[in-house]
Structure formats: structure tokens, C-alpha cells
Amino acid sequence: MTDRAKIANVKSIVQQQQGKSLRRNRKQLGRQLVPVGKPERSGSQLRSVSESVSLADKARADLTNMEEAKLFSDRQLELLGIVHPRSKNRGLVDAMRQLRTKLYSLKEKGNFSVLVSSVVPEGGGSFVALNLASTIAFDKAKSSLLVDANLHDPVVHKLLKLIGRERSLGLLEYLERPELGVEHIVSPSGIPRMRVIPIGADAEISAEHFTSARYRQLMIDIKERYDNRYVVVDGPAMTTSADARILSDICDYTVLVVPYGMVTPGQLDGIVDEIDERKLAGIVINDQPS
Fold first, then answer.
1. Which of 34, 50, 121, 258 has the smallest number of Cβ neighbours within 10 A?
2. Domain boundaries, the chain
3. Which carries the bigger pLDDT value, residue 256 or residue 14?
4. For 118, phi and psi rounded to 5 degrees?
């Protein structure tokens, strides 16, 4: 996270979709996305795990995880490169608000989940995900939840360390320990109305976790628990990890982050072609010179 990263433009996806169908028809069938079945919303198999946690455990976890023990000051947020309603970087605030408005327009009723992923590593995907979640939380009638699913370069744990929550349980523990419920892994972020799920312990995790019923159920639970909560998933780079495509399938929408001058048109076309066009919400061009 750095305040040197700059959003210069939020580009309409319509321009990228022109000619997409023609290119896709020329692709070989072998370039299909990793299939993920549609989650069952009422199936007992998916629900059974979270129901195994006692009401007393849930209550204790909620009290522990949800209290705002410490909030970042405006100056601290500026140093971290995180937007807030009084940010001095008005260009960044305006760009993030524009992206937020675009997403709201796609889902006029109810909340949504959105994957934010850079096309290439170190392209600014985590920066955009963090600031999008923060911008959604500007509105006192809404809240956001940032899920750190970037196994290669997680960032949420850095925020938690600054507010003294570095030992918080995260996504990895939830996927590996059936006795844990959602309330055990959601933590405060240091930002009002914004919660986070960190990646968890520093250990290996395979892509198979993201195709599991438990991960799909997690995404259902965190979205449905509060109808004013918008879920932002920070994913790995599209060109280096199959995880990003799996996560895109599970989320309602996907936002691609393109670092200026670091992605060829062919690379971008290839990534766009492999994402469901109904899910691709837009492309953010990051760090474009003024």
C-alpha cells in the first residue's frame, strides 16, 4: 500500500468488449475457465458447518471481533494511502467514487460481491481493493467487508498489525477448521463501517480450497448476513494464478486493474476473453502519468 499509486482513469468496459465475441470464437475450447458449481442457498450440506458453532461461541466471537478498539486518524490513513471523506487526494477520491457508482448501477437492489484483481503482479490490485472498500464505507447507511484472498501478496494483515489485531483468525483457518464460523474471522479494520477477513496464518493453501463448498458457503454467508454490506475480494494477479479466475466465477462482479505501460493489448484481450462478460464490471488504469 502506497500513496504513490494513483488512479488516473476508470475506463468503460464497453470499449474492451468490442470485438470480444469475434476473438472468443477463434479460441480453442481448451481455454475454458475452471468450473465452479452454483452454490445451493438452502442445502443442508453447505449450512451444516456454520450451524455446528454454538450460540455462546458466536456471541463471544461477535463481541471480540466487531468492537472498534482503535481507529486510524486522518493523517494515518493519508500515510497508508487509504482514502477517507476528508482526503487531500481528491483525484483519487473522485476516481474511487466513480468506480463505486459504476458498481452500484449494476446492482440497483441489494448488495454485491466484487473481485478486484490486477492483470499482472504488483499492478495495484490490492491498492484498488482496499480503497474501494474504504470508499463504500463513506456512506453511513452502508458497510464493506474486505476479504484478503491474495495468497501471493496479502496486505490486510498489515492493517491488523497496526491496530493490534495481528493474531486474528483468517480465511486460511476458516477453510481448514470446520468448527469455525464466519464471526470468528471477521475483524475490525481501523476504518469505520469497514470490516476485514485476513488471509490468516502464513501457510500453503491450494486452489482447491476456493472450489470447495465451504468457501462458496462463506461467500454466501458474508453477503447475506447484512443486506447493506458490500463484499470486496482482493485476489491475486490474473496472469500468474488460476485462483483469480476461480474467485471471479464465485463473485458477482470483477474489476481488472491495469498498471499503465505494463500490459500489452494482447495480454488484456486474453484476460478479458476468459472472464464472463456479465461479471466484468470495468477496468481501472492505475498509475497513469498526468
1. 34
2. 7-27+40-286
3. 256
4. -75, 150
